[in-house]
Amino acid sequence: LQINRIFKDGIGLGGIFHTAIQVYGNEEWSFGYCENGSGVFSCPPAKNPMYTFRESIVLGKTSCSPRTVNQIARELSREWPGASYELLSRNCNHFCNEFCDKLGVPKLPGSFLLFDDLFSDTLHTCSCLMMVAESKRSF
Questions:
Q1: Catalytic residue flag (residue 18)
Q2: Looking at the whole model, is its pTM more than 0.90?
Q3: What is the CATH number of the domain that holds 95?
Q4: What is the mean pLDDT of residues 6-33?
Q5: Cβ neighbours of residue 36 under 8 Å, at least 6 residues apart?
Q6: Which of 57, 67, 89, 95 has a C-alpha 20 to 30 A away from that of 120?
C-alpha cells in the first residue's frame, strides 16, 4: 500500500497494517472477520496468503511454555468470534495486543496503532515477534 510507504517509511507516523504474533517459530496467530466460529487463525510465519509479508519485529521474550502458548491461543479463540470483528475497535492489532498481554511481553509499537487510535474512541494496546503484512487487495 502506498499509504504505508508515505506514513510509516516516509514520515514515521505509522500506517495500516495486518499484524500477527509468532511464538517459538512454529506458526503465527492473528484475528479476522468471519460470519461463524472463531476469528482467530494461525498459519506458517510470514505465509498468510491474504497479505504480503513486510517485516518482523522482536517484541520480547515470554516465560510461557509452548503448551501454555497453545492453551492461551485456544482460550482467545473462544473469546474472539469472527463476527465480533470491528475495523477500528476490535481488529488484528487489538487481538495481538491481548495475546501479548497474556504472554507477558511488550505491546505493539504505537506506530502500528496510529490509525486505530486516530479513529477510535478507545485506546487498546499490547504484543513476542510481531509479523507485519500489507494487504494484497487494491484499495
A1: yes
A2: no
A3: 3.90.1720.30
A4: 71
A5: 82, 83
A6: 57
The count of domains in the chain is 1
β-bridge pairing 27-31 and 18-23:
antiparallel
For 53-97, how does the pLDDT look when each residue is reduced to its tens digit (9 = 90+)? 878 888 888 888 889 999 999 999 999 999 999 988 899 989 999
**Which residue range is the domain that position 113 belongs to?**
2-135
Per-residue cell: 87:
475495523
DSSP string, the chain: -HHHIIIIIISSS----EEEEEETTTEEEEE---SSSB-EEEESTT--TTEEEEEEEE-------HHHHHHHHHHHHHH-BGGG-BTTTBSHHHHHHHHHHHHT-PPPPGGGSHHHHHH-SS------EEEEEEESS--
92 included as an active-site residue: yes
Q: Which of 92, 96, 126, 128 is catalytic?
A: 92
